[in-house]
Amino acid sequence: MVKLTKLTDRYQLRYSFDVFNVTNTPSFDTPDNNVEFNPHFDGNYVTVPRGQLGVVQHTIGSPRFISMSLRFGF
């Protein structure tokens, strides 16, 4: 959005207002596929795999961003 205001024939003010990602909607990154699997028999049971398989840890893009500016022209 831009608003232009003439003060005189020579001077003017320009106000601009920009908004990006208004709804602040996240875009999720792909899930991790990191799995640590070292099976070994420990008496009565076998250890289970550990890791971050299928866990989304990051988002893509940026959060809501608002920019305003005021420019004096002559």
General description of the model:
By secondary structure, the chain is mainly beta. It has one domain (2-73). Helix content is 0%, strand content 47%. It contains no helices and 9 strands. The protein has strands at residues 2-6, 12-20, 27-28, 35-36, 41-42, 45-46, 50-51, 59-60, 65-73. The strands form 4 sheets. A 3-stranded antiparallel β-sheet has the order 1-2-9, with no helix packed on it. Strand 5 and strand 6 form a beta hairpin.
H-E order? EEEEEEEEE
Q: Uncertain regions: pLDDT < 50 for 5+ in a row?
A: none
Order of strands in the sheet with most strands: 1-2-9
- Give the DSSP E fraction (strand runs of 2 or more residues): over 45%
Describe the structure in brief.
This protein is mostly beta strands and 74 residues long. 0% of the residues lie in helices and 47% in strands. The chain has one domain.
Question: Which secondary structure elements does this structure contain, and how are they paired or packed?
Answer:
Layout: E1 2-6, E2 12-20, E3 27-28, E4 35-36, E5 41-42, E6 45-46, E7 50-51, E8 59-60, E9 65-73
Antiparallel strand pairs: 1-2, 2-9, 3-8, 4-7, 5-6
Could you list some keywords that capture this structure?
74 residues; mainly beta; two-stranded antiparallel sheet
